[in-house]
Amino acid sequence: MNWMAIWVTCKLATLTSLTLLIIGLPIAYWLTYSKWRWKFLIESIVALPLVLPPTVLGFYILISIGPHSPIGRFYTDLVGHPLPFSFQGLLLASILYSLPFAVQPFATAFEQVDRKLIEASWTLGLSKLKTFYRLILPLSTAGLITGVVLSFAHTLGEFGVVLMVGGNIEGITRTVSIEIYDEVQALNYAAAAKTSALLLLVSYTVLLLVYAMNRRVWSVWPQK
């Protein structure tokens, strides 16, 4: 089992989910409470990774951050190395790829907050920002956890975007999914089976926790 690939995958998933928590909250808030007539255009863009083939998304990300693009040239001049086929480029691609898995649960949680409570907070003199932190966020905890966990789990299994943008560099961009693919290509099914079983176990555990939390299955048991 390639523990370096497991480390890269865990680091990538952790940084992706934490970044999406930071940038996903304002996006979800705007999508929930904005009255802009054309906001469905932004909603469609956010949800696009759900239906777009990963290789297509990876291709466009690769082109947009390549050395001939303005973003790619700026990054290369700033840090001295290109963004594609680096961990930083892989992180950027993972954030874009997993964006809807964080934003949509956040927005759903915000929508379930009673509007009367929000308006009451405003009438008591609290600003929209204070209302968000003191009222909306605490009442949306389950949705926030769901978004973070789903984006983490989704990143664990990335393949197409990872391969297109990050390549297969040992210790830098080789993730568990790439490792499994390499083992299968080498006809080393025993190693691929072990790594696949680990990924299956982790993914199932993560989803089990999410569903248990949302359904509150432990509430059916009597409390002593």
Question: Can you summarize this structure?
Answer:
By secondary structure, the protein is mainly alpha-helical. The protein has helices at 3-33, 39-51, 54-64, 70-79, 87-111, 115-123, 128-139, 141-156, 160-166, 176-185, 189-215. Mean pLDDT is 88; it is low at 217-224.
Q: At the third CATH level, what is the topology name?
A: MetI-like fold
Q: How many domains, in number, for the residues? A: 1
Biggest pleated sheet = none
Tell me the fraction of residues in β-strands, as a range. under 5%
Any guess at the CATH architecture?
A: Orthogonal Bundle
Output the helix-strand order: HHHHHHHHHHH
Which value, in Å, is the CA radius of gyration? Answer: 20 Å
How many strand elements? Answer: 0
- Gap between N and C termini: 44 Å
Q: Assign the structural class, choosing from mainly alpha, mainly beta, alpha/beta, alpha+beta, or little secondary structure.
A: mainly alpha
Helix content: over 70%
The poorly predicted ranges are 217-224
CATH class: Mainly Alpha
Compute the average pLDDT: 88
CATH H-level superfamily: MetI-like
The quaternary structure here is: single chain
Per DSSP, the total helix count is 11
Shape: globular
How would you describe this structure to a colleague?
This protein is an all-alpha fold. It has one domain: MetI-like (MetI-like fold), CATH 1.10.3720. Helix content is 76%, strand content 0%. The chain has eleven helices and no strands. The radius of gyration is 20 Å and the shape is globular. The protein starts with a helix and ends in a 9-residue tail after the last helix. The C terminus is likely disordered.
